């Protein structure tokens, strides 16, 4: 999913909750610089993801329903929040 939505502006993603993500291992920079994005990601299966590096970097107005339900227990690389 590397760079999938990088730089997306004014994106409202209907149907994203149905994407099959159960084999995804890297979400690196997926939503980087997605300045305005509103999507339902509640159906995304994240249990195999080990990299979230830069995933939301620069995503100033990101609204993602379902993020709180993501299983990120295998994530090893996370974006630093102190930068």
Description:
- The chain has 83 residues and is mostly beta strands.
- It has one domain (1-64).
- The chain is built from no helices and 3 strands.
- The chain has strands at 11-13, 36-40, 61-65.
- It has a 3-stranded parallel beta sheet, with no helix packed on it.
Spatial separation of the terminal alpha carbons: 24 Å
Widest sheet, order of strands: 1-2-3
How is the main sheet built? Answer: 3 strands, parallel
**Low-pLDDT regions:** none
Gross morphology: globular
Features:
single chain, 83 residues, mainly beta, three-stranded parallel beta sheet
What topology emerges from the helices and strands here?
Blueprint lengths: L10 E3 L22 E5 L20 E5 L18
Parallel strand pairs: 1-2, 2-3
Q: How would you summarize what this structure contains?
A:
The protein has 83 residues and is mainly beta. It has strands spanning 11-13, 36-40, 61-65. It has one domain (1-64).
